[in-house]
Every structure is written in C-alpha cells, then in structure tokens.
Amino acid sequence: MISKALVLCLVSVAATLLIASCGAEDIASNELDTNEEVPPLITRSDQTFTTDSFTQAGWKKSKQYDTATVPQATEIWYGFFNQRDIEIRFYENHQDALEFGITAAESSIEGAVKRSQGGRLLDFSGGSFSAYADYLVAGNTVLLCEFDRSTCELLLEQLK
C-alpha cells in the first residue's frame, strides 16, 4: 500500500511541475510578443531633401550607385554616419518614396539576409552594398540602415 505521505508528495511534485510549465509558457509568449516586427519609420512627409541636406548633417557620402535596379529612384548614394553604413535613395517626392522605395528597401534587406551565412555576407555583387537590416522613410528619401535604424534616426535629428 502507498502511504498518504507518498501520495501527498507525488501530488505536490506534479502540481509544482504543472505550475512551472505554465509559467514557462507565459514567459515564452511574452518573448514572442516583444519580437514582433516593427513597422518602418515614416517621417517628415512634407520635406524634400538633397545629398547636401545629409552631408551638412554629418553624413559622409562615398559612392553613387546606378538607379536602374531601383524603380523611380532619382539618385542612390552610399555613405556613413557615426561609423555605420547608410545608403540614401532619393525620389521625386514623398509619395514616390512610399510607393516605390519601401518595396525596394525591403527587397534589399531580404536579399542581404538570403546572401548571409553566419553573420558574413557572401555576395556583394549587383550594385549597392546590401548588408542593411532596417530602413526608414524621410520625406523624399529612403534610408537603408546598417544593423538597425537608430543611426539613421540620429542622422535625421541632425538635419536642419
């Protein structure tokens, strides 16, 4: 026969395991909630920028790219700010930046993810540097941002 103490002990252990597993599910679901995709930042819809706007804010332009593979872009420049790469794609207006620029930026980011393995890019061919992880839309421009958009946001704060 099983003693009452042993039954009580087994029930206590089972209850403790059940409670612990429920708590782990709550933690896991909270982690999933915090990892949801953040929508792109869209700002300064009433402003029009030039390369000079960004260079005066401290962005160092380095190389101009061909616009042939980026629909409706009028200029594309690679450069850096605060030791982070930032590619700026210029459009005629804010509406073009939204309509054509977001799709092109997402495609560039997706392409970089597909070409990466273990954190190293395997292929830099095809025009622009494409190791960007995020982007934002500011006026008539789309900024592709290395790692995250925090450096792009800092650059925008410096614009006059």
CATH topology heading of the largest domain: Phosphorylase Kinase, domain 1
CATH uppermost class of the largest domain: Alpha Beta
Given the structure, what is the number of helices? 4
Number of domains: 2
Helical/strand content category: alpha+beta
* Widest sheet: strand ordering: 1-7-8-4-3-2
Describe the biggest sheet?
6 strands, mixed
Radius of gyration: 24 Å
Oligomer: single chain
The portion of residues assigned to helices is 40-55%
Following the backbone from N to C, one meets helices and strands in this order, namely HEHEEEHEEEEH
The global form is globular
Can you tell me about this structure?
About 20% of the residues have low confidence. It is built from four helices and eight strands. The protein is of the alpha+beta class and about 160 residues long. The protein has a six-stranded mixed sheet with strand order 1-7-8-4-3-2, sandwiched between helices. It has a two-stranded antiparallel ribbon with strand order 5-6. About 40% of the residues lie in helices and about 25% in strands. A hairpin with a 2-residue loop joins strand 7 and strand 8. It folds into two domains: about 35 residues; about 120 residues, Phosphorylase Kinase, domain 1 (2-Layer Sandwich). The termini are far apart.
Describe the structure concisely.
With 160 residues, the chain is an alpha+beta fold.
What tags apply to this protein structure?
six-stranded mixed sheet, 160 residues, 4 helices, alpha+beta, globular, Phosphorylase Kinase, domain 1, two-stranded antiparallel ribbon
